[in-house]
Amino acid sequence: MNKNELLKVMIVDDEEMIRRGLRAIVDWKEYGYTVCCDAADGEDGYQKALVYQPDLIITDIKMPIADGLQMMTKLRENCFETEFILLTGYAEFEYAQKALQLGAKSYILKPIDEEELVKTLIEAREEILQRRKENFHNKYFSISMEQVITKLVYGAVDEEFIDAANAVYGFQLPWKRYQLVLLEQTKNQETDEKVLDLLKDFTKNNIGFVFSLNNHFVVLTKDVIFEQGKMRLLEDLNGKLRKLPGYTQPMVVSRPLKELEQINQAYYAASYFIEHQFIFPYEEIVLIDEVGNPYAQGKISNANQREQLDYRKIAEGLCVAVCGNDLTGISSLLENLGNKCVESGYDLEQIRIRYVSTYVSVMYLLKIQSEEIFKQEGMVDVVILQISRLSHLQSINSFFLDKLSQIAQKLNSNQQGNVIRKMKEYIEANYNSDLTLKNLSKIFHYNVAYFGKLFKSNTGMSYNDYVTSVRMEKAKELLNQGEKVYKVANQVGYQDLDYFNMKFKKYFNALPSDFHKDNNK
């Protein structure tokens, strides 16, 4: 709700001179307006009002096709709250009274007096803004602070809602940066009340806001608190929480966020971690990335961040290898993962956890490629149960090699079949175009070399041979219809007649002219 916003005006009159004159007679911007459009009659005005949504309509009454009153009536029936100013002559005064009954702001007698028009425009603007303010108040001022924060977390906000949050609670959104802290509730009422008191005390110096959501305590901070120089605040809070009898819940902290839209992603990532924390090494304070994996734990250290980054790169590399059906790449990256675990001094249980967390990351990255495969293969509980029976690194590695290889083949068979079908359909519909491998690879967003191999592996013939076969069969069909050879060559994509003859002879073991004669005997 911006007081400085220019309100939109539509001018409706069947006389072009009047429409032009109204545009010129007033400095619209000075009085808080902009002319968004004009119309020549009531029906034209009605249609344009639906498109441009003007705040104010200045309209003549008597016009051809549909008059001003008919336009007003139709717009009111569509629940338009647009203000109207009527332009009328003395002979039309009775019409003007009807317009006022329909809710018109006022009427102005022709010829138009500039001072009277300006005065009416100023009054109309004040009434429009007041009505907006009342609508805004009715819509938002009953909302609680917890509802505001909940909507921010769920990503259900727009510009108007942010204005409401700022007006009602002084949120001063958008903030420079954001960070989310999530703690699972203990389901012990006394303990949870004490946790909530500590979190409220933590945020009392305008650090942020705390609330409950889906059996979690959520803290939304106005700045980054989990970074060098600010860790003391979080460590102090953690120390107080650990003093509560039996309190063991980890404190899950999102990565620093720059945009409001990222709050929703951060919440679901933190929730995911809490739901699957049993597959990760226990830490009191955990910093998680966008898919719910810890990429820094406990106190921040460069060495730890580098180690986590290495594991993330392995997960990203595995995703690429699976998407490309690169079984050698999958094997190499899993071997690298095993070596990293050994170098880190992990015991067997830690190795299992690292492999599972990497698998989870790959599944979430693959979710973008195929929601169906994510649903089929993303069952972490089943994977954990299966590897709990494996007692050697080699067997764990082999298990995940088989798992990811199967996913790669399934993913690529599904995708490649669809892509090849679309490619063949395109070739058959555009056989007379410039169908070079390079051009088609651009259309389907493939690397040229990979595209050629993909086509041959799925069709059993090279790309060029397939294009030639489509063109030759089409040429045969056209020759059967009595078309001239030179026309057929051109119609199937060959500009050089000699080259067409050569390709045709090679394919059918006969020249097109011979074929043409045979079919005309």
UniProtKB/TrEMBL annotation:
Alphabetized Pfam families for the sequence: HTH_18, Response_reg
Gene Ontology biological-process annotations: phosphorelay signal transduction system
Domain Response regulatory: 8-125
4-aspartylphosphate sites (modified residues): D60
Stretches assigned to the HTH araC/xylS-type domain: 421-518
InterPro entries per record: CheY-like_superfamily, Homeodomain-like_sf, HptR, HTH_AraC, HTH_AraC-typ_CS, Sig_transdc_resp-reg_receiver
Record's keyword terms, sorted: Cytoplasm, DNA-binding, Phosphoprotein, Transcription, Transcription regulation, Two-component regulatory system
GO cellular component assignments: cytoplasm
Location, primary (coarse class): cytoplasm
Molecular function GO terms recorded: DNA-binding transcription factor activity; sequence-specific DNA binding
Subcellular localization, as worded in the UniProt entry: Cytoplasm
Task of the protein: May play the central regulatory role in sporulation. It may be an element of the effector pathway responsible for the activation of sporulation genes in response to nutritional stress. Spo0A may act in concert with spo0H (a sigma factor) to control the expression of some genes that are critical to the sporulation process.
The protein, known as: Stage 0 sporulation protein A homolog
Taxonomic lineage: Bacteria, Bacillati, Bacillota, Clostridia, Eubacteriales
